[in-house]
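re: that complex we talked abt at group meeting.

here r the seqs, copy pasted straight from the sheet so there may be weird spacing, ignore it
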Amino acid sequence: MFRSQQLALRYFAAAMTLFGIMIVAGLLASTHYVQDGFMLNKLDFSITKTLHIDTMIIWLLMGFIGAVYWFLPIELEREVEGIKLAEIMFWIFCAAVAVVAAVFIFVQYGPATEMSLWFINQGRKYVEAPRWAAIGITLVVLVFVYNVVATALKAKKITGIVGVLMVDLIPLFGLYLIAFPSITNMSEDQYWWWWLVHLWVEATWEILIGCIMALALMQLLGTNRRIVETWLYIEVALVLGTGILGLGHHYFWIGTPSYWLGIGGFFSALEPLPLLGMVVHAVYDAGTHRMKTTNKPAFFWVMAEAFGNFIGGGVFGFMMTLPQINLFTHGTQWTVSHGHFAFWGAYGCGIIAVIYLALQKARDAQQLDSTAWKWSFALLNLGMVGMVGALLVSGIAQAFYERAMGGSTLQAFMEAQTNVWFVQGIVMRLVFGLVFAVGYVILIVDLLAIGRKRVATENFKARAAGGPA
Amino acid sequence: MSAAQMICTALLLGLFVLLAGCFGVLYCLGRLHADDKLGRAAAFAYLLQGITTVLLAMTALDFWWKALLLASFVAYLPIPPLTWRLLENLYKPGEQHS
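got the structure back, here u go
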C-alpha cells in the first residue's frame, strides 16, 4: 500500500469520527426544538447547530481528500508527491478542528471585536471557524492541490479524470477564500458568501464527487476508462451548465436585483435534468452487472448516492425552487429537509461507498460482505428518509401558517412554532434522528470488522503451516 | 397565490420531478429485462407527469414558469432513451474489464 493510501485511511477515520460528532450535535440541536430550555446557557441551540453544520462540511471534505489520496497513486501509478507534507497537514487539520470545536463548546462567543473574528467565530454560517483555523484549512487545501498537481506533473501522466480534478481544485481552493472577508453590508456579504456555499456544494463538490465516483466505478465494477471519462465530461458540462447560474435561487430575497428571480428560477428548474441521466446510468450499471460485485456495501452505497442525489437534490429541491414558492418556503424546515436529503444523497453515501472500497483493498478481502452493513444501510437511509419526511411536514406547516397565512410576522412565527403539525414533525425528526444514530453505530462497528475475518483466518493458517503470518 | 395554492403547487412540482424519475427508472428496467409491461409502466409514468404538467398549468404560477415546465416536460422524454443509447454505445462488447 502507498503511503498516501495509509494517509487516506487516516482521513477516513477522521471523517467517520466527525460524522459521529455531527450526529450527536444534530441530536442535541433537534432536542432544543422539542424541549424548551434544554441546556440553556450551557450549550445553546446556536452552538449545537454550528457544530452540526460545520462538522458536516468538514467530514465530507475529509472524505473527499481521503478518497483522492486513496485513488491518486493507483491512477498515476506512483506515490503522491509531497506526501510528508500531506501527512503533517493531516495532523494540523485534525488539531485545528479539535481546537475550534473546543472553542465553540467552551468559549462559545466573544465581544464584537477583531479578536473574536480571529480566535472565536467568524460568524458566517457553514464557515464559522475563526480566522486562524480558516487559514489552516486554506493551507491544507493548498497542500492538497499541490499534491495532486505535482504528482500528475511528476508522473507525466494526466488522465481525463485527473485533468478534471486538477481544474476543479482551482475553484475549490479559490472559493474558500471568500470565507475571510467581513463585509458590513449584509446584502453584499450574502452575495459573496453564497458563491462559497453554492458554488462549492452545487458545482465544485459535484465535480469532485464525480471524479471520485469515476475512479470508484473503475475499481468497483471494472468499468472501462473511456466510459467513465466520457460520462464524467457529460456530467461536468451538465452540472456546471445548470448549477453555476442555479446560484441565483439563493439571490431571490437578499437584496439583489430582481433579474435574479428569472435567472435563478430558470437554471434551478434545469438542475434535475442531469440528475435523471445519472439515475438512468445507475440502473443501467446495476442491471448489466446483475447486482453482482465483490464489494456489496460499496455497490449499494453507490446506488444510494445516485437515487439520493436525484430525490434529495432534484425532487425536494424542485418543490421549492421557483420564486413564487420559494417566497414562502425559504428559511423554513422545508429547506432543512431538502438540505439534509441532498447532502446525504449527493455526498454522504458516496464517501461511505469509497471507504468500503478502500477497506476491501487495505484488508485484502476478495469478497466484502456482512450482515452489519445491511443493517446500517437500512437504518441510516430509513433514518434519513424519516427525518426529511418529518422536516417536510414541519416546513409545510411553517410555510402555510407562518408565511402564507400569517404574513411572516413575529406573532405568526411564534404561532407556527406551536402548531400541531410543526411540533409533531419536529418530534418525529428527533425519533428518526435516533434511528439514524443507531445506523451510524452499526456502520462504525462494521467498518472496523468487515474484511478482517478472512485475513485473520489466513494468518492463522499460515502460522499453523509454519509459514510467515 | 393563496396558502393552499402554494402548498398544492409545491407538491405538484415535487411530483413532476419524481414522476420523471419513475419514468427514467421504469424505462431502464423495461429495456434491461426486455419487458413490455415495464415499458408500458414507464409510458404511464410519463403520462402521469403530463397530467401533473396540466395541473401545474392551472395553478397561480406565472406564465413563463408554466412555459418552462412544459418545455421541461418535453425535455424529460428523450433523456432516458438518449442516455440508454449513449451507454449502450459506450459499453459495446469487449469494452468491459470484468
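couple things i noticed - The interface with chain B takes residues 221-224, 226-227, 230-231, 234, 262, 265-266, 269-270, 272-273, 276-277, 279-281, 283-284, 287-288, 310-311, 314-316, 318-322, 324-325, 328-329, 396, 399-401, 404-405 of chain A (CB under 8 Å). Chain A has a mean pLDDT of 90.
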